[in-house]
Amino acid sequence: MTTARPGATDTSADVAREIAGEQDHVDRVYRELEKASARAAEVEKDGIARGRSSRSGEVRDEELTGLFERDALVYAAAKRRSAIEKQYEGLVFGRLDLGDVETPAAERDIRHIGRLGVRDDDYEPLVVDWRAPAAAAFYRATPVDPMGVLRRRVLRCKGATVVGVEDDLMVPEAPDDIVVVGDGALIAALTRTRGRQMRDIVATIQRHQDEAIRAPSRGVTEITGGPGTGKTVVALHRAAYLLYSERRRFESGGILVVGPSAAYTAYIERVLPSLGEDSVALRALGDLVDGVTASRLDQPEVAAVKGSLRIRRLLSRAASRPPAGAPTHLRAFINGHAVRLDESVLHRIRRQVLRSAQHNLATHQAREQLAQAAWASVRQGERDEFFDAFDSSRDVDEFMRTWWRQVDPREVLLGLADTDLVYGLARGVLDQEESAALALSMREALELGTWSVSDIALIDDLSGKLGPVQEPESEERGFYDIDEYDDLASYGVNDVRAGVDRGVATARTQSVVTPLDPRERLLHGRIERASSSAHVLVDEAQDLSPMQWRVLARRGRNASWTVVGDAAQASWSDREEARAAQTEAYGSHEVRGFHMDTNYRNAREIFAYARDVILPLVPDADIPEAVRETGVDPLDRVVDAPPTSAVEQAVEELLDDVEGSIAVITPRRWADRLAHLDGTGEGRVQVIDPLSTKGLEWDATVVLDPDAIVEESPGGVRVLYVVLTRAAHRMTVLRPG
Ligand SMILES: Nc1ncnc2c1ncn2[C@@H]1O[C@H](COP(=O)(O)OP(=O)(O)OP(=O)(O)O)[C@@H](O)[C@H]1O
């Protein structure tokens, strides 16, 4: 916050008096809230009771309408009550004194800002929701453009108690009665200890951040900037803002937030609920396809093969092969005639059918084409009789069961464990070395029983090619769960299907017992079809492979987007191909950009160290300005190898220096020797690999063996740059000699 503090008067008596004044208001707000909460509970109880009595006997149309209204009422009341309960902590965090210097005190407009709007019995606003237009000046006013604000105040609360206030004056000279206290809320917030989870910044959002948060919902909003510039936190506040400004659209259509890893989603998962929003789906890249999950990373060369769009041709070829175990010819006795269709005819039929349909939805077409070919090979007797007999032939039923059975995309992918098969499928697409590496990685999956993160995009691509696996026909299928809906969904009409799927979810509830056999584990569970979202928010976008962009494109066909990234932190090598896939995912949407240039995370000394590492190698890196100083430079030590005791010592020192979280960031080669440190220091210490630190931060870090980090990482020095920009207050770099 740009602070103008002429005439600041903050004796402890002033501070105590100001805090007491704010406490009065906050007390009033909580009293109102209690009343509102009780009212909401009453509506809920009343509504439910009414519903119960109405449901006895026949339900007439007008009663049905009443039930819908009741449901809506109860839902709204329950939601409001839950919001009130969640927002209890730090509910009121700001105040604006509006007017000009001449305005008498009694005529000034006082506006309190909070996580939620609250009104009194006369419908007078006691707190304005931070996302409402009336709160915009809280974030946008500056001494240059005060927007009618005399003083902006940030309230620090513990529960319902005001413990501090921090003021910024927006006019050169404060009117006599206006007291200005505190050192500025932003620096206070940035100096605080980091916990295991990201916090919201609702009380200290900066003007340039607010502009990105409140940007129009349509189209694509790209947020760029160097490390620690608040891109992630801004994007999350934007999601909360979108839900506030167009709740109906975004709550029903859904907002999908995608980040690099499960560690990242765990790190950010509290931010939106703390802003009162929990209807957002947070997904790591390994969890994008419903029904499969992955956290294992492939070796960089393999990830490069699986991430590039080249692989799609290979997958297409694999998906159009007959399923494993399919017969090579058809022999049947139809209407008194011997029918024999050989391999080349069967291949031709397969090719023809797959030209216009997805395998799993084309059983009917395949059988029809088969009948045509069979008739062409016979051409004797009555045509219609022949077709009827073909239709009801048990021989043909038996043949179809294996020749055109339902195929799970994962099964096709596992087929690539056969190196010779991959050599054949990869002709003109991959070289021998790449093909062998791909096959080897599939054998690895079969050994471990786990998918890698890059496999998920391949499964999704194959899923799109093959179509959804159809359940065998069953008597129990619900009225709405009919095949036409399956077909519609394959043409992108997902909304119809979404309701159907919800309806049958319990019928298909999967077993929670995970099979022991690795292959069965890989194929366990059912792959759900991709559901589309109204808004897709992508963090660390610089790391997405082209194939991963396609996964998102399928989920964001009609979505607006918020995309967050910093090219200098990229771990994906071919930026151009990825950028093209990214642009394609956006479709024809217009793109607007916001650039963040202030680093709020790293102490200036730490960021200077990181900057000196990246700039010589990536001269066009986007370098922000760090706002905070600690006066302590990072330590850089050469230590004996193996470095275990040196790391232990560094951790000991940092446990004394900082109050909060500490990360030991280690390349693979030392990881086993340091595992024992994970969770020490009463849970404050975490041992983590370089790539998994993306998007995260700690109070202090020990960065072990920077040269090995560069060597082992696909993004080389860019990944080291990520690692060197994770610490807020202290950093120790250790170089095994
Ligand atoms: N206005 C603000 N007030 C208080 N804290 C802020 C503000 N803006 C950013 N921060 C803090 O700065 C830190 C960095 O923010 P964030 O992780 O969003 O940055 P980023 O640009 O996504 O970083 P990176 O690209 O390095 O992952 C977080 O602790 C965040 O809470």
Short description:
This protein is an alpha/beta fold. The longest helix is centred in the first third of the chain and has 43 residues, at 12-54. It comes from Knoellia aerolata DSM 18566.
Assembly category: single chain
* Biggest sheet details: 6 strands, mixed
Q: Roughly what is the average pLDDT, rounded to an integer? A: 87
Q: What is the terminal-to-terminal distance?
A: 44 Å
Question: Mind explaining what this structure looks like?
Answer:
InterPro entries: DNA_helicase_UvrD/REP, P-loop_NTPase, UvrD-like_ATP-bd. The protein has 737 residues and is an alpha/beta fold. Among the domains are: 12-191, no CATH class; 207-289 and 530-596, Rossmann fold (3-Layer(aba) Sandwich), CATH 3.40.50.300; 599-736, Rossmann fold, CATH 3.40.50.300. The protein is built from 30 helices and 23 strands. The strands form six sheets. It has a six-stranded mixed beta sheet, covered by helices on one side. A six-stranded parallel beta sheet has the order 9-8-14-15-7-16. A five-stranded parallel beta sheet has the order 19-23-22-20-21, with helices on both faces. The longest helix is centred in the N-terminal third of the chain and has 43 residues, at 12-54. It binds adenosine-5'-triphosphate (ATP). Adenosine-5'-triphosphate (ATP) binds next to helix 4, helix 6 and strand 17. The site of adenosine-5'-triphosphate has 22 residues, from helix 4, helix 6 and strand 17.
